[in-house]
Amino acid sequence: MKAENISRMGTQVADNMAEIAEKARDLSAKVKERLDDTYNDLGRTVRRAKTAAEDRLDDVRSQVKKRPLTSVATVAAGAFAVGILTGWLLGRKSRD
């Protein structure tokens, strides 16, 4: 009787292990599929961002060619503003 119980338990353990292995394979396949989808989505997003950046750069180049003095003045004003802000922040930090 004990030998039958041990044999039955061994069979149950083997069946459980096979079921766990099958679930692990299914989970692995799902994870791989999800990873592949994410990788492909990321690739598409990077390509879209690259295209958008190139389009914007072309727009900026054409504006600079149309109005070079305005472009230089805009950059100079921006640099001046950043310099003033940086000086104010550094000066404020040293007074504290």
Main beta-sheet strand count, sense and barrel state: none
What are the secondary-structure elements, in order, as H or E? HH
Apparent shape: elongated
State the end-to-end distance: 87 Å
Number of helices: 2
Based on CA atoms alone, the radius of gyration comes out at 33 Å
Q: Helix content range of the residues, please?
A: over 70%
How many distinct folded domains?
1
Give unreliable regions as ranges.
none
Beta strand %: under 5%
Structural class: mainly alpha
Nearest-integer average pLDDT: 90
**Strand count:** 0
Give a short overview.
By secondary structure, this protein is an all-alpha fold.
Describe this protein's structure.
- The protein is mostly helical.
- The chain has one domain.
- The chain contains 2 helices and no strands.
- Helix 1 crosses helix 2.
- The longest helix is centred in the middle third of the chain and has 65 residues, at 2-66.
- The relative contact order is 0.04.
What is the strand and helix layout of this fold?
Elements: H1 2-66, H2 68-95
Helix pairs in contact: 1-2
Which descriptors would you attach to this protein?
96 residues; mainly alpha; 2 helices
